[in-house]
Amino acid sequence: MHRFMEKLAHFFAVLGGLVLSFLILMTCLSIAGRILNSILHSDMLQSFMPGIASVLLATGVGPINGDFELVEAGLAFAIFAFIPLCQLHNGHASVDIFIARFPVLNRRMQLIIDVIFAATLILIAVKLFEGMQSKHSSGQTTLLLQVPVWWGYAASLLGAVTSALVGVYIAAVRLFETFTGQQILSIEGGAEH
After folding, report:
1. Could you tell me if 94 and 112 are in contact, meaning their C-beta atoms sit under 8 angstroms apart?
2. Which of 35, 69, 144, 180 is deepest in the core (most CB within 10 A)?
């Protein structure tokens, strides 16, 4: 089971990384287009080289239409896509001042945290599903691209459901460890501060 969760989490992390890379490239191109469009519309260029400026402007040089809408939906998906791997490897930031000195207490605290985190991830997935249904039934679309808003919710829901699955798996393993005394997953890791 752990191998399946590991592959699932890695798949979503890679997919999230690809989406994030695309968004970065698109944003850079959009900014470059916006700057070039401003330069081509400048008084100086319009005075000295109006023909070249007009030809370049006619090609459609400018910002990418709907870039903000794509970034909004894409970043939401990417965030949810990274959570499963982070949860699986206990990569969330933690502040351990007192509990780190007591291993037994540390394991109990990790169990409580993982159970609460799993419940939170389930709640997020359920609420995201309800939000997606609401957007779907309302027929709401984005302003510029006229893409249904629920598509962004659906993409994010894939990552949220995967996060919830991994969260429940981690909580179940922690419960098993508590009742059997076996150590399956390390409580080390994370970004300790």
Report:
1. no
2. 69
